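User: Could you go from structure to sequence for me? I need the amino acid at each position, not a summary. Structure tokens:
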């Protein structure tokens, strides 16, 4: 592991943040129909910086995994993103459906966002190396 470069982490963070924004902009009506507070109009001003920090946290963790696993190339990055998606968001979101009675369609909508983010971040970081 040579270390983590800040520029690829920042680029991947912004890319994932923009992708998530676009994802929910397109599917916002679905969120509203499913009864999610996230789909109820314009988010409060504090939410965007918090989401950016959350995305930076995820991107930083993926950067460590990419570096430790010596993941290189976009195809290996895409595979890593898919594996991370199954291992974490899918497990957590399915648990919320089973144990907390979250509607499965709402969980699936969020799972799609996580798939896009994790694959995008993993591809950017692994292709950069």
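Assistant: Here is the amino acid at each position, in order:
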């Amino acid at each position: 592991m040579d270390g983590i470069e800040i520029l690829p982490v920042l680029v991947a963070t912004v890319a994932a943040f923009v992708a998530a924004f676009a994802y929910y902009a397109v599917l916002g009506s679905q969120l509203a129909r499913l009864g999610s507070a996230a789909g109820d109009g314009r988010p409060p001003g504090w939410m965007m910086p918090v989401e950016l920090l959350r995305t930076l946290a995820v991107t930083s963790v993926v950067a460590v995994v990419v570096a430790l696993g010596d993941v290189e190339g976009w195809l290996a990055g895409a595979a890593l993103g898919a594996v991370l998606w199954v291992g974490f968001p899918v497990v957590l979101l399915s648990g919320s459906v089973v144990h907390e009675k979250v509607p499965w369609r709402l969980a699936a909508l969020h799972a799609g966002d996580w798939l896009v983010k994790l694959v995008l971040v993993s591809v950017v970081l692994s292709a950069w190396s």
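One structural detail worth keeping in mind: The two ends are 11 Å apart (CA to CA).
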